[in-house]
Amino acid sequence: MHDRDSDVIFLTTLVREIGDNEESSDVEDCSVEPYVYEPESSDCPSDVSESDSDIEESFSDAPNDHRVENTDWISSFLRSTFKGFKMISILGGISWKTLTGSTDDDWIDRANHLWTVCLLLLCAVIVSSGQYVGDPIHCWCPAEFTGTFVSYTKNYCWIANTYYIPMDAAIPKDIAQHQKAEINYYQWVPLILVLMAFLFKSPNIIWHLLNTKSGINLSRICELTDTINLGDSEKREECLKQIARHIDRWLRENRNYHRNILVRVRQKLSNLFVWCFARRDGYYLTGFYLFVKALYCVNCVGQFYLLDAFLAMDFGGYGFEIMAYFRDHGEWKETSRFPRVTLCDFKIRQLQNIQQFTVQCVLPINLFNEKIFAIIWFWYFFIAILSFYNLASWLCYLLFSHNKETFVRKYLRIGNQIRSGFDKKLSRRFANEYLRDDGCFLLRMVGKNSTDIILSDLLRLLWIMYKEAPFNNRSNTAYLKDQDVDAEPMVDNDNDRYPIDNRNGSPQKLKTISEV
Fold first, then answer.
1. What is the DSSP string of 285-347?
2. Lowest-pLDDT range, 125-129, 232-236, 409-413?
3. What is the pTM of this model?
4. Phi, then psi, of 345 in degrees rounded to 5
5. Which listed residue, 53, 81, 259, 439, has the most CB atoms within 10 A of its CB?
6. Could you give the CA distance from residue 500 to residue 498 in angstroms, rounded to a whole number?
7. CA separation (Å) from 102 to 73, 98, 220, 236, 443?
8. Contacts made by residues 192-197, CB under 8 angstroms, sequence distance 24+
9. 277: closest CA among 268, 262, 287, 267?
10. Are 414 and 405 in contact (CB under 8 A)?
């Protein structure tokens, strides 16, 4: 039995092979419906699931002219359908998720590499449409200029730049003064906007290229935890167990098991300077993420200087000038950096004579440029404040061990895992020696891209795994004794896991990961 698509392909190939060599039959007419050949005669089969021999037999009875016409129709239909499916598959691959990237950062990062990029590209499209759809420049030419001369004047003044002299000022005769007042940016505004968009996207590209070297797919972990939030409880728990096992393996494998002087020196440097990050020291993701955060801040400030050079003006104070003028006069200020009316000098060779002309031109495109760069200034100012605040917040979160311990205990308490003073003290080692900076950073990213419930459940599973299998030669009891804590062993002689409740001294059996 064939499905509908295989029947159509077989049917088309068969008719082409038969050609015009078949003898005509007594069948008066056959009509073709999509996917099914149904002749009017009762002898023609109509079921799409019939055998190949029946299909061949019914086609051999059909007239040649109908057969050729039907073959062309089917071939055309198949080609158009295939092209349609191909186009849909291509467009289906372009989604908002593709544009936004992965969920391995916070919303302030996305404000930099997504929202700002979209804003700049939208501005580039608006300016480009003003340049290439309409006339970006109009010049007031002498009366003797014909249509060709007028067109030449407009094109020349657009390419060769214009200069701005206030209407109440005399035009200087010195050509050098004209060159100092030149406006040479308006042709390149779309390109500079695209460049600015790329600069805002580049830290995110660097982050995606480097965080994969940590040994764990951070983006995939955050995506999975965000997806399972909407699933049923059983599937969600099973998926969380798989994620917890993967994180546990990553945490145990990426550490220094060989202790020597080089390892100790590198760890001391990592403790002092997070930029000396190494994967096995637990600072790799943390260090690179803070580095990317710093890149966002440098990019915001650097683009103010970039626009200073591009616009030949103090762009850093542009927004303050607009606000001050609007406060005093209640209207928009027309600045000399975005003039509507400019002047243009050009020369025309006529036989042996060279004539110089000065024409007055109007730049409608500067109506858009003035508003666009004002919007960009206010947006950059807002993004710069957010980026610096966000960098300072993450520095406090990631560089101070007290914040890691507070973060871990908060979500362990949500999961009802801190049942005794023993657990409270043990959570310190769990945060500083098991999770370390990279593990806490990963969990923070999970929490920022999912919910506190998901994060609490994931941390609970990691806590149980940590209690089941200590990861180094030092026992948990020895660690707690070093901290001057009266503690009992976590495991008894029968290898059963019993957390000791210091409040009443009675052991409670701890569930294993398979029992959770």
1. HHHHHHHHHHHHHHHHHHHHHHHHHHHTS-GGGHHHHHHHHHHHHSS----TTS-SEEEEEEE
2. 232-236
3. 0.68
4. -105, 135
5. 439
6. 6
7. 45, 8, 8, 21, 16
8. 192/310, 193/120, 193/121, 193/123, 193/124, 193/127, 194/120, 194/121, 194/124, 196/120, 196/303, 196/306, 197/116, 197/117, 197/120, 197/121, 197/124
9. 287
10. no
Q: Which residues 6+ apart lie within 8 Å of 343 measured at CB?
A: 162, 163, 164, 165, 171, 178, 358, 359, 360, 361
Virtual torsion, Cα 179, 185, 186, 192, nearest 10 deg:
170
pLDDT band at 142; cut points 50, 70, 90:
confident
Q: Where are the domains of the chain?
A: 4-92, 107-210+297-390, 216-253+400-482
DSSP bridge partners of 497:
491
Tally the C-alpha atoms within 13 A of residue 228's C-alpha that lie toward its C-beta. Answer: 23
Provide the β-strand partners of residue 138.
362
CA–CA gap between residue 101 and residue 95 (Å, rounded): 10
The predicted structure's pLDDT at residue 117: 95
DSSP summary character for residue 256: -
Q: Among the listed ranges 20-34, 172-186, 377-391, 397-411, which one has the minimum average pLDDT value?
A: 20-34
Q: Which of 472, 474, 492 is nearest to 483 (CA)?
A: 474
Question: Do residues 215 and 315 make contact, with C-beta atoms less than 8 angstroms apart?
Answer: no
* Amino acid code (one letter) for 355: Q
Per DSSP, 491 falls in state B
48: nearest Cα among 7, 106, 93: 7
Longest dimension (CA), the chain: 112
Q: Is the separation of the CB atoms in 6 and 13 below 8 Å?
A: no
> What is the spatial distance between Cα 372 and Cα 172, in angstroms, rounded to a whole number?
31
Joined together, the tokens standing for residue 286 give: 């943390």
Confidence of residue 199 (pLDDT cuts 50, 70, 90): very high
Question: In this structure, how many other beta carbons lie within 10 angstroms of the beta carbon of residue 419?
Answer: 17
